[in-house]
User: Fold these one by one.
Assistant:
Number 1:
Amino acid sequence: MSIKLFRDFLRDHFSFTLVYFISHLLVSVYCNHYISGNIQLLYLLSISVYVYILFMCFRFIKYVSTRREIQRLSENVEIEEKGFSCEQQSIISMIHRIHHTYQDQIYEIKAQADSTHKFISQWIHNLKTPLSVIDLILQNYNMNTTGHALALQHIGEEKDKILSMLNQMLKFFRLEHFTRDYTPEPIHLLESLRALINSKRNQYIYNNVYPVIVCEEENVIVMTDSKWNHAMLEQIVTNAIKYSDAGEEAKSIHFHIKQSGDQVVLSIRDEGIGIEKVDLQRVFQPFFTGKNGRTHHQATGIGLYVCSEIARKLGHHLTISSEVNQGTEVQIAYLSKLKESVT
């Protein structure tokens, strides 16, 4: 038992002690002057001091017990609230709530840090692959300078891969501060989709894949953030092109927009290699590449995870279905908005 604890106890009970003795002194003076002058003031005061000492001893035992129980909270030990006053129980309950709240926040921060560390490690590993390919291309070019056009084409392809991975990383980190860069607004879904398709014209031609758009009406307005929605659709379309695996036979990517009640559903379906059923339930998990990731070494396992997070934060419903060697279909359900209400 420390002296500091005893001093804290006396300081906490100073006001009680002061009121106690003043009240008894006033009662004693009153009895001596107005009731009987024969009353021994010293006798009354001694009784008061005796009762006071007994009471304070009891209070001190309770005080020490409470302090010890509260200190146990710092060790994450559940304590029993039996014998505590209502005030003490409310304080301990409040400390419990604060403690559990901060524990949850610390766990969430640690989980985010672990996920970020894992992503950076995977991203660095993936970034080294195109750099190694560029190095091999340059070595071959130095040995055979006649193939410079083909070498430049291959370097351009690897440059696009690096740029794509850099953009993925930027999207991943921006998700942590989504609300700072989020502006919901009505957008023309068909126009934004056409703009995205046109921006990837070269990829379509190079991979022998062609878009097919089916829309029930021309003016389809949805509520979303234009930049984040573009990032989500760009990743889905990039995956559709990459996994179409067209070869010499041309294939199509089908875009279908339809109104469904108060929602607009955009469907993006490719005719590619598809996804195994055992992998389908995990495609939105970070860093999961599945069987396709082992055959396509460019897979990072982060693209669809970012898409699912963007959709969740935007309030859109994202689903995916697939059959092996038949293709994959991704559907995004938006909240619709009539064109007449757009100013």
Note: The chain has eleven helices and seven strands.
Number 2:
Amino acid sequence: MNSSHYSANATFIGPPPTFHQILAITLMTIKIILNSIGLILNCFLLYMIVQNYQKLHKTFSILLTYTLINDCLISVTLLLTIKRIIQCHETLAMVFFGPCTYISTSFCHVLDAVHLHALQNWILSQILLIGFRTAMLSSAQSFLSVKRTIFFCVLAWLPGLVSLVLHVTYKFSRPRLLELIHRCYDEDFSYSYISGYESFYNSPLPFTIVMLLVPNVPHYFLAYCFRHKQNHDLKRRTMSTSTLRMHTTLRKVSTMKAFLPLFLLADVLIYFFCQLEVLPPQFIEYFLGTISSSINILNPVIAICCFRPYRKMFKEYYRLILSKLSAHPKVMFSEGSSDEVVNL
């Protein structure tokens, strides 16, 4: 009797979870779900592009593939690390809980550096995409070729590579990092898989923030040029109903795509204002990475829903899956114009 009484009561030993713990776990779960869904969608769209590359607009497909690879890297590195971000004055630490901990803390630190590298590449890939759409409405169409597109992708990849090297080669003292964190937190992190930056000002973080903020200027400048060029064409030309519908759809797509970098910009501003101690450090722990995780879902969804060839491929693959399940004849992707990606 007594033993069963004590074993029953043992289940309830310990304080109940605090609001801080519940909120942190909830937001981390949301982040994992968003990145898991985003990874599936991006991999599926990549598969469709690879399988049907010869039937698509090659230049645009290369640019979209570059963006999707960065999306996949962002999701994979976040799912492998699953980190809790802790800020104490100028110190920033990451406590890792993901599968990377089965290897080592150093491996987790490298994956986190790759995550930042992919974020920088992603914002630069958006500049390439909006630049492509602007060029397609102007006389610069002849300048767009597969070789030049690959060259611009490599060029956009280099600044992120510099940041990656800086983060991977950054050295920190674990005892010193724990000592700095304990100025703000009473928790015991001595048994945690932890890495970070002892001082914001003596780390690669300022360079990373600049690389995430500055590209927004040319991105929105090109978005303005695209909108101005499109309005000019609509006023100057007499267009058919189909062409007018194409421009209307393209305007909606470009507006949606233009808003995507704002999700990443929100993360950067949260960290920046927390570093200046304008916002409490809990904002970093709760919201950093949660807002920008929406990008990984929205980017492939916009491509699949709004661009005709990708929408057509999605429908055909959906019918193919249904035909396999219901034993109907296979329905394959039909040959179409490579200009559909521009003409929607």
Note: The chain is about 70% helix and 5% strand.
Number 3:
Amino acid sequence: MMTALVIRKLAAMPRLWRLVAVLGGLLIALALPWLIYPPIAMDIIAWALFAVALDLLLGFTGLLSFGHAAFWGSAAYTAGTIAIKTGAPFPVAIAGAAVVAMVLAVPIALLAVRRSGIYFAMVTLAFAQLVYYVANQWRSLTGGENGLQGIPKNLFGLDLSDPFYFYYAGLPLALLGLWIAWRVVHSPFGRVLVAIRENPARSRSLGYPVDRYKVMVFVISAGLSGLAGGLYAISHGFASLQEVYWTTSGKVVIMTVLGGIGTLWGSTIGAALIVQVEDYVATSGIHLGPLNITGPGLITGLIFVVVVLLFRRGVWGTIAHLLHRRRTVPDAEPHLSCTTAPPLETGTVVEHEPAAAPKQ
């Protein structure tokens, strides 16, 4: 009884939970290269930002994109090219890569938002494959199948060849991207996105340009994906066709769903889980009698199936839902992310059904 009472009181303090979660996340991020191999820690940070960027579309706007590898990969090539050709500090190269990803996203978004559901996903996938074809054929710039090699880690003369030191040099960029995503979600703009996810027709009837909002969040998501892709390429010193291949888009979707769509921070959990599992299987393998599993695809697929069957809202989404249920009873059934559509603006008139007369 006492434990349940304590949990109920803590659940009633969302601000405290947010502060604890933020501080805990920062401590984990700072300690990560001390706990695991630093390059793997940097991969987790980059993929986490990539998954959070996708969650802006999938979880908060209701748009499933299978083409985000185009922005991740194009940014990886752009950051590598800027770093090699100009010798600019790596933050400048990554910033330029994010801008290129946003510019690339504009025409794709203008065409893709005309469709919804699986048709939107297929349009984004088609454009991603087009980017893959261009990257494969433009060998003078991308290196083709050989990739872009020898990307330097320049930062005003500092020696960042050690992955341990580069992790702390690149971490502020990832934290900046995460803060931008958080600020988008917790702004009036983010509230409109949630309303569009719940009921696009009503949002349009209230005067909100739904397609314009979709284009804007698509471009923001692409920019954050580009930030993550540039950081990933600089960290590895290499950019390959794998970065723009369609499996990269599928991988980040799995990360987002595993963590919990519409939870933002759940994507970081999904990214950490997938990256760690892939590293373990690739290096050690799993031996079950005569069966030797050395490819990560089977294991990650099994984890995905188990989580989807047992935790419908994902890992973090399930935790958030349990805490949500211990607070006041909601007026409406929450989304899978436990976020409901708030009023679009103060003073908006919302029509309600008249109450039914009691039976005599």
Note: The chain is about 70% helix and 5% strand.
Number 4:
Amino acid sequence: MMDLISQEIFTLHGMLIASIFIMSWGIGLLMTLSHMTPWVPRRRAEFLAPEVEYRASPVKEFTKLLERDLNAPKRYTPSTCYLSVIIPAMNEAERIGVMLDDCCDYLEARAEKDEKFTYEIIVVDDGSTDNTPDVVKQISLTRKNLRCMKLKANRGKGGAVRIGVHNCGGKLILFADADGATKFEDFELLEKEMLRAAGGEPLDESFPAVVVGSSFARTSSTDFQLFRYSRAHLAEASVAERSFFRTILMHGFHTLVYLFAVRTIRDTQCGFKLFTRSIAARVFPVLHIERWAFDVELIFLCEKWSVPVSEVCVRWKEIDGSKITPFWSWLQMGRDLILIWFRYTVNLKKIPKLIQNKIGLWTDEPPK
């Protein structure tokens, strides 16, 4: 009996039925996963709601990225400074001081040499349970152009970056991790590539472009000598120091990114990315992922819209105190990757409005 069943399975007809069954099961699984993890609808009013500086007297509101007038010629407001630095932080009281010293030292020194170089630093406290915002506020008393925004609840790294970007005034917008893993002066490398892509100085903020600090960027032999202590070199060297399990998870994640989302950028997770104001106003309002995989959705959309995205090798060192939980964070990121591919591939805009609202597309309509 079992022999007959086995022979039937391996016939053309049997294989066809098995394939249909597997595909149906896979699609059903994706639909179930999508239903269980809905994307929160994005409302324009959310992005235009005022945000105020933490413990500022008098109360000071942040500059808005988006224009309030839907009929305005541009979707973004005019820039108020050359560079905005967005730093998401959660429970970083012990580490953020070192990062801010590195950041402020570079920016203050450059501003002294070049009066046209204006900047702001916005630390977005993502619902910390320690005294991170108070530490930042204390540092701001002796540093220039440093402000803190405190979120009422934890939104995830992606959510904190998104809110910070929507409340900044820079012609260029850089987000950087609070751990200080990347040497801040390497901003000049990203800036140089951005100017090259945008056609040189003066920088045109209406030109859509993204530059990513990368651990895997291809460089010339001369560049490799210059950046021999880059994140790329250290990432490869640190494989031997990681557990076998964590190494498998790392490579598995990069494989999933390539298969389901981004293929032009090798390192999507480096927390050192530079945007022009125009592309920030286009891509950040439609982001849905608020946790660790938000970088992938961001670059995925840029690829789909044919926005120039460049990689630049930066110096990097591993810092203790990572907020990533080795198993659950990677599992969550893998789930988000698959949902990015699934939801954008099936082109949700063609799905009936009821299903769109459940999944959560960005809309200008007022909430009901």
Note: The radius of gyration is 23 Å.
